[in-house]
Amino acid sequence: MTAGPEPGKAHGARPVPASRRGGWAAVVPVALGSFVLVLSELLPVGALTAIGRDLSVSTGSTGLLVVAPGLAAAVAAPVLTVASGRLDRRWVLWALAGLTALADLLCAVAPNLPVMLAGRVLLGVALGGFWAVGAAVAPRLVAPGSAHRATALVMGGISVGTVASLPLAALAGGSTGWRTAFWAAGAMALVALAAQLRLLPPLPAGPVPAGRALAAALTGRAARTGLAATALVFLGHFAAYTYVAPYLERHAEYGSDAVAWTLLAYGIAGVGGTFLAGHTLGRSVPATVAGAAGALAASTALLPLCAGSPVAVTALTLLWGAAFGAVPLSLQTTLTRAVPTAPESGAAVFVTTVQLSLASGSLLGGLVADRRGVLACLVVGAVLSGLSVAVTAYAAGRRGGRATRGQQEQQTGV
């Protein structure tokens, strides 16, 4: 789960003549594809307890269902960025939509954890491929003046998928069974594939990105700092977030319906956080990053202390959702500014960092949950998110210091 390249900067892509653009009718199935991918990625979070009970595995082991796609996506993003360089982007999107459907349907019928993990690995490949390759397609489908709106529609699939995934899984887990949620996701992936087959125009690719371009995204100090902040906040978030449903059930003592509605509110708050970040980033990127990570750290740190108060738990969950809604866009903007000459390479490295951190955070949370309990996961998440604030503040301080010294040198003529 991450944002795509900056609109209008699909590096190396050949322009599509106006007569062959698919228009808004072609943007919609691409947006549906992004929605289904994020929905599928997060489904296990909302039904973690039910899945573990049905497959007879511990909560920590069930958390591997979040770890597996993250690791697969981390590998797939840079590999597919290079390997699919000469392929028509239609074919890439078709393959990724088909792979998403296969992954969800495999999870829906999985008799045990290993089979389900196999489905989640397939989903991870689709995730890495889409965010590294497919997310840049939208601006090519419409007139240049509409590129930002087309990209916003595709990126909107992230927010809507986040909003829908947890309550869908929680409601299904409490009524028809968690497998229903995966059947529904698989069906939606097939709908997205059918629409893409029908509506996408030819989208010829540009030259294959060189491996050294990917490495170049890691050389600058600003890029490394941004990636460090990204790793820490995603580690912390997913160490805690993967186990939010068990926390609400066991410690806040919410029923299944209350869990579903709380997670729905969390997702809606996340959409609000995304739009808020879009406004505040124009004023200060470091402050937006630090503010989002700080609010995330504060909410996860306070939740263990407020488990007995439904009002406080709900309010802190909403703050958490809004804070994390601002995180991907803020950090993506940080990295885009750090490597402006190689946006696709920067995006691939960002996706890899996010997915590795997502997987590692979920794995760390699982180990902590099995040994110290779910409340300890929240504490770990708070500490790691707090470290992200420290990294961001330190980097901003260094930049401010260099700017001040530069001004002084200009004034003194040194």
Automatic annotation (TrEMBL):
Lineage, uppermost ranks: Bacteria, Bacillati, Actinomycetota, Actinomycetes, Kitasatosporales
InterPro entries: MFS, MFS_dom, MFS_Efflux_Transporters, MFS_trans_sf
PROSITE patterns: MFS
Pfam families: MFS_1 (PF07690)
Tagged with keyword Magnesium: no
Domain Major facilitator superfamily (MFS) profile: residue ranges: 26-400
Annotated membrane topology: Multi-pass membrane protein
Descriptive protein name: MFS transporter
Organism expressing this protein natively: Streptomyces pyxinae
Listed transmembrane segments: 24-43, 63-84, 91-111, 117-138, 150-169, 181-201, 222-246, 258-278, 311-335, 347-367, 373-396
PANTHER family: CHLORAMPHENICOL EFFLUX PUMP RV0191, PURINE EFFLUX PUMP PBUE
Alphabetically ordered keywords of this record: Cell membrane, Membrane, Transmembrane, Transmembrane helix
Subcellular localization: Cell membrane
tRNA processing keyword on record: no
